[in-house]
Design a protein that fits this description.
The complex is a heterodimer of chains A (about 250) and B (about 270). Helices cover about 30% and strands about 25% of the residues of chain A. With about 250 residues, chain A is of the alpha+beta class. Chain A has a single domain (about 25-230), classed as GHMP Kinase, N-terminal domain (Ribosomal Protein S5, domain 2), CATH 3.30.230.70. In chain A, α2 (about 130-145) runs parallel beside α4. Chain B starts with 11 loop residues before the first helix and ends with a helix. Chain B has a single domain, classed as GHMP Kinase, N-terminal domain (Ribosomal Protein S5, domain 2, 2-Layer Sandwich). With about 270 residues, chain B is of the alpha+beta class. Classes of the chains: A alpha+beta (about 250), B alpha+beta (about 270).
Chain lengths: ~250, ~270
């Protein structure tokens, strides 16, 4: 096993224990999609697209009182070290499900009865923490599509490397570390909408890791908001009242 | 080309107007009959792939990744490596694209692009053989379609060519029936740069690089790929309509002229020229 934290307390990629990887967010990157977003988180490169609200196919899935939300998380065959078969794996199907459940509380689905919204996540390159990065991008794409939302959803993981709690695990750290705790939250509503744990932690470690993940989410949340503001209001931060009027399309 | 079951609907007034424009040698977008939309090529963006390229022609966007694995040769070609082209028309790319196994359109796309690469002998497959009959290198080219606005054939073809031409793979040493991977990275054995040119016939007019609206109205489609010596190495006619013999000859000339232009552009963009 390689040393994941050196004597100076720095990680394999030179980060401190509570530091996020460099990230980049963009919205409105695809022409056909109703809403789209792109995220780079470390070496993760993920495209998110939203189609809808639209007619439901197959028809029997229609819900009389609200919108049907569907989510697909998919990895391109070239996104990982060994080529991945393009057919959906069990892992991808599980992630699709929890991502849908993490996004659903943020959407006011009652506003769109008898319709469907499809959220598609395509992982072009995966580098650990792709479900969190994907979720952060999916929330942006939903906002870009103009879907009525209660809040954005933002996700980040914390984990444990040989007794040390660290933020935002990379691929190597995820594979060789001791635990991984992905968390998603709607920060304004203070609701956690995704939580998974893979590995062993004491109660105290869990608390530290959970709080650290929330701190990471906060940084990303600010970036999400800034990305939307710069897309819809230009580079400069607009005065507060203009934000409340909403974008003119 | 319609991806999925639903064709794209174009209003009658646009059809009439397009026919009117084309008869005067112009297109609705303002392009000339033989003009491509802007072509953008970016390579090496997927570090985990041996080679990668993101290509856009107008608003159509695709990304291709090359992966190399060890494989067993086919019994009829024991001394040749394997080349596998696979295309996924992702549901993010259009509201008519559905998730699931590749549709017949996606399979046609992959096979036409495969033919351009294989028949032009772009890659010297014999140099990918490690132990004849036992071990060869298998080159996988996977293409993910991100956004569709017509002419997927050429966009995918250029992405595959650019990804292969810039790929770096591990060098293997063979000694005493043993294959050993070395640290050294080498390019793939590339011999030429195949370039496809896709043309559409609407009424009696031939145009290159049809966009989505033009594809919805085209009567017939023809893709011809050529190598750097102006040999035509792959072709595919599509759609229910036909071409006259004269139109096929005209298409051949166009494919060679535009093919050379686009090859020069591609080589310049990926730093080969």
């Amino acid at each position: 096993m390689t040393t994941l934290i050196n004597e100076q307390g720095l990680r394999v990629d030179g980060r401190r224990f509570d530091q996020l990887r460099p990230f980049k967010l963009e919205v409105g990157v695809l022409r056909n999609a109703d809403g789209s977003a792109y995220i780079e988180m470390g070496k993760n490169k993920i495209m998110a697209a939203v189609y809808g609200p639209k007619e439901v196919h197959p028809k029997h899935q229609t819900l009389p009182d609200r919108c049907l939300l569907r989510c697909r998380y998919h990895m391109s065959p070239f996104s990982v070290d060994t080529r991945k078969n393009p057919a959906p794996s069990r892992r991808e199907i599980e992630i699709s499900k929890i991502l849908r459940e993490a996004l659903e509380p943020a959407l006011i689905l009652g506003d769109y009865p008898r319709t469907a919204i499809d959220v598609y996540l395509e992982v072009l390159q995966s580098d650990g923490g792709s479900r969190c990065a994907g979720l952060t991008a999916a929330a942006l794409a939903l906002a870009d599509a103009g879907i009525n939302m209660r809040d954005l959803v933002v996700a980040c993981a914390a984990g444990k490397l040989g007794g040390q709690i660290v933020l935002d695990l990379s691929d190597v750290e995820d594979k060789e570390g001791d635990a991984d705790l992905p968390v998603a939250i709607m920060p304004n509503l203070n609701q956690v909408t995704l939580l998974q744990l893979d590995g062993m932690m004491t109660g105290e470690e869990f608390k530290t890791a959970f709080e650290m993940a929330l701190q990471g989410c906060k940084t990303l949340y600010d970036a999400q908001k800034a990305t939307l503001i710069s897309k819809y209001f230009g580079k400069a931060e607009p005065p507060q009242q203009e934000v409340q009027e909403g974008p003119e399309e | 080309m319609a991806i999925g079951k639903k064709p794209i609907v174009v209003e009658q007034i646009r059809k009439t107007r397009m026919a009117e424009f084309l008869s005067k040698g112009r297109r609705l977008s303002g392009r000339g009959l033989l003009d491509y939309r802007p072509i953008k090529i970016e390579t090496g963006l997927i570090e985990k792939a041996s080679g990668s390229a993101k290509v856009s022609i107008g608003n159509t966007q695709v990304i291709a990744g090359v992966k190399v694995e060890m494989g067993t040769p086919f019994p009829d070609t024991p001394d040749q490596g394997l080349l596998i082209v696979n295309t996924e028309v992702l549901p993010i790319s259009s509201r008519n694209a559905e998730p699931g196994p590749p549709s017949e359109d996606a399979i046609e796309l992959a096979r036409v692009v495969d033919r351009g690469i294989r028949e032009s002998k772009m890659i010297d497959l014999k140099k990918l053989c490690l132990l004849p009959g036992k071990k060869v290198l298998a080159v996988f080219i996977d293409v993910s379609v991100l956004d569709i606005d017509g002419n997927l054939f050429d966009t995918i073809s250029y992405a595959c060519t650019a990804a292969l031409a810039t790929a770096k793979i591990r060098k293997y040493d063979v000694a005493n029936e043993e294959v050993k991977a070395t640290e050294e990275m080498v390019p793939l054995p590339i011999r030429t740069t195949p370039i496809s040119v896709t043309m559409a016939r609407i009424e009696d007019v031939l145009i290159v690089d049809p966009d989505l609206e033009e594809e919805a109205l085209m009567d017939a489609r023809l893709t011809l790929a050529s190598d750097h010596d102006d040999n035509i190495c792959a072709g595919q006619k599509g759609c229910p309509g036909g071409f006259t013999v004269e139109q096929i000859m005209q298409a051949r000339d166009t494919a060679l002229v535009k093919g050379k232009e686009n090859r020069d552009l591609l080589k310049r963009e990926i730093g080969l020229a």
